[in-house]
C-alpha cells in the first residue's frame, strides 16, 4: 500500500514591493496569500512582528495588505520607514514569508 500525500498549494498571489511615501500620506504594502484554508497574515518590520491590534495608524486589510495611515517621519522619529515582510501561516502546513520590501519616506 502506498500512502498518497496530497500537496496543498499555499503561495503568495501578491508580495509587497518597495514603496516611496511622504510624511502624512497613506501607503499600502500589498500582500495576498492563497490556500484552501485561509492563511493568517502577519507583518514584520525590520524583522520584528508588528502588533496591529493596538495600532491606531497601521491596519491589516481583508486581503492581507498593510495600510499605514499618515506616515510619521521626523529627524528623530522614523517609525514607518524600513523593511517589511508579509508572513502567511496555515497551521496544518506551516509558514511562508514574502520578499522584503523597503518603505522609504521622502523628506520635504
From TrEMBL:
InterPro entries from the UniProt entry: Ig-like_dom, Ig-like_dom_sf, Ig-like_fold, Ig_sub, Ig_sub2
GO terms of biological process kind: cell-cell adhesion
Cited Gene3D superfamilies: Immunoglobulins (2.60.40.10)
Superkingdom field: Eukaryota
Span of domain Ig-like: 9-104
Keywords annotated in UniProt: Disulfide bond, Immunoglobulin domain, Repeat
Family: Belongs to the immunoglobulin superfamily. DCC family.
UniProt-recorded name of the protein: NEO1 protein
Source organism (scientific name): Panurus biarmicus
Amino acid at each position: 500500500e502506498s500512502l498518497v500525500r496530497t500537496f496543498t498549494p499555499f503561495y503568495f498571489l501578491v508580495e509587497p514591493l518597495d514603496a516611496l511615501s511622504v510624511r502624512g500620506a497613506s501607503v499600502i504594502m500589498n500582500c495576498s496569500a492563497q490556500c484552501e484554508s485561509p492563511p493568517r497574515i502577519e507583518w514584520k518590520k525590520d524583522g520584528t512582528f508588528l502588533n496591529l491590534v493596538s495600532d491606531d495608524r497601521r491596519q491589516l486589510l481583508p486581503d492581507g495588505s498593510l495600510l499605514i495611515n499618515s506616515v510619521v517621519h521626523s529627524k528623530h522619529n522614523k517609525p514607518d520607514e524600513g523593511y517589511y515582510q508579509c508572513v502567511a501561516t496555515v497551521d496544518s502546513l506551516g509558514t511562508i514569508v514574502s520578499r522584503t520590501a523597503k518603505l522609504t519616506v521622502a523628506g520635504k
